[in-house]
Amino acid sequence: MSGSGTARRSAIVKALFAIAVWGASFIATKIALAEAAPVTVVWLRFAMGVTVLGAIVAWRRQLTLPSASDLAYLTLLGCLGITLHQWLQSNGLVTSQASTTAWIVASAPVFMAVLGWLVLSERVHPLAVAGMAVAALGVLTVVSRGDFAALAAHRFGTRGDLLILASAPNWAVFSVLSRRGLRRFPAAWMMFWVMTTGWLLTSALFLLTGPGPADIGRLTGRGWAAVAFLGVCCSGLAYAFWFDALRELPSSQAGALLYLEPLVTVAVAAALLGEPIALATLAGGVAILLGVWMIERR
Length: 298
What we know:
This protein is an all-alpha fold. The protein has one domain (about 5-295). The chain is about 80% helix and about 0% strand. The protein has 13 helices and no strands. It has helices at about 5-35, 40-60, 70-90, 100-105, 110-120, 125-145, 150, 160-185, 185-210, 220-250, 250-255, 260-275, 280-295. The model has no long low-confidence stretch (mean pLDDT about 90).
C-alpha cells in the first residue's frame, strides 16, 4: 500500500474514532450528571482534556505561549466554545434526552449558514434556503416529539431542550470566529489554548457557583468512568485525532462523516440508557441531516 493510501486510511480511522466518542459523549454526560452537578462534570472533564491535549501538543513540540493579543482572542473562544457551550449542554442534559440533544446539536451548520449570510454577507443559494427550512422543521419535530399541537400551546419541549437548542447557535458563533485562528495557528495548539482558557473560566464557576470540591467525592466508579471517557477520549484524544484527519481528508469527506454522530448517540442511548427510538424524533433527525446536506451542498 502506498504511503498516501496508508495516511488516508489512518485519517479515516481517526475521524471515525472522534465521531464515535463524540456521539457517545452525551450518554456519558448523562451518566455523570446522575452523580454530580453539571459544573463539576464539566470542570473535571476539561481538566483531563487539557492535560491530554497538552501532552499531545508538547510531544509534537508545539507547546508555545500565545502573544497577549492572541491570548485575548483565544480566551473569547474558550468562553464561547468551552465555558458557555458546555454550561448550556450539561445543564440541558439534566432534563433533555441524549438522543434529542444529538439531533439538535446536528443543526449547528444551519445557524452557521445564517450567520454567514447575516454577518459575513455570504451569498445564500435557494437550495440552502430550502435546507434551512427543512432543518428548522426537523428541529421542531425533534423538540416536540412530533406533537405540533404542544408547540401551538407554547409547550416547547423541556427546559433542557431549550438550553440545548441555544447551544447550537452559540457553537455556530464559535465556529465562525474560529476561522481566522485556524488559518493562522496549528489546529491542535489553538484548541489546547481555547480549552485551557475555557477550563480556567469554568474553574471560577465551579468554585463560586457550584457545590464545590466536595461534589467530586460523590462520584462512584461508574461516574468516574463516564468523566474519564469525557475528558480523555472526547476532550483530549478526539480533538487531536479529528484535526489530524482534516489534514489528510477533503473537508467534504470529513464533513460527511459527521452525519454519523447523532446516529451513534441514538444507538448508544437506546442500549445504555434505555431511551426509546421514537419514530417522530427519528423523522425529525433525518430532516435535520437532509437540511444540513442541502446547505452544505452549495
